[in-house]
Inverse folding.
């Protein structure tokens, strides 16, 4: 809104060519473009989403893994061409009853769950503050996303990997008077869910994204 008001305030001071240039720049800044899936192998396949995080991360935010598992599974179900999936609740129940699941061969894990694709996300960073400064927010969630093709030649290896890292707030100097901890967590989870899920289907992104 502010950007638009500034644009209209400047128009009377500009020439025709300059106006066209400003309008084009504004259109680009507020527009979107299509981004193609990096991994397109979920079509006509079944999948399950597993998220691993160390005890420190889980102790800091016990809701993080369940919420991300649920949100990413739902987003992939709604937007990919997968023909089957394991509901997040069943995956979370499995990981609770099989705490050593990360040590299992991926092919065996996929066979137990009856899927042809395993999406395994290893969360290696989760924080709300800059290290050494608990008074200002500088949230980060980061992880590696891997896909196992259980029906392929190498069912225990990743056929595709990508790193995902998101942050919030978008700038420095924000503290508890600006955002609550729950707000920071909610934005980080939404951004990580989008970035991790977008790897698997074509989608629209802002030309100048916040994350």
């Amino acid at each position: 809104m502010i950007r638009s008001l500034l644009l209209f305030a400047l128009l009377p001071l500009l020439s025709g060519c300059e106006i066209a240039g400003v309008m084009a720049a504004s259109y680009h800044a507020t527009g979107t473009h299509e981004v193609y899936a990096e991994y397109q192998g979920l079509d006509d396949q079944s999948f399950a989403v597993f998220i691993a995080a160390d005890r420190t991360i889980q102790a800091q935010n016990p809701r993080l893994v369940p919420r991300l598992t649920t949100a990413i599974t739902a987003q992939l179900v709604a937007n990919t061409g997968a023909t089957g999936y394991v509901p997040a609740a069943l995956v979370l129940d499995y990981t609770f009853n099989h705490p050593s699941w990360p040590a299992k061969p991926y092919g065996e894990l996929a066979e137990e769950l009856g899927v042809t694709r395993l999406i395994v996300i290893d969360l290696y960073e989760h924080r709300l503050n800059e290290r050494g400064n608990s008074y200002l927010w500088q949230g980060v969630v980061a992880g590696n996303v891997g896909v196992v093709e259980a029906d392929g030649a190498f069912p225990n290896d990743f056929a595709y990997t990508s790193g995902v890292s998101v942050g919030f707030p978008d700038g420095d100097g924000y503290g508890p008077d600006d955002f609550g901890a729950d707000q920071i967590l909610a934005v980080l989870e939404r951004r990580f869910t989008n970035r991790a899920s977008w790897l698997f289907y074509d989608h629209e992104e802002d030309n100048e994204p916040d994350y």
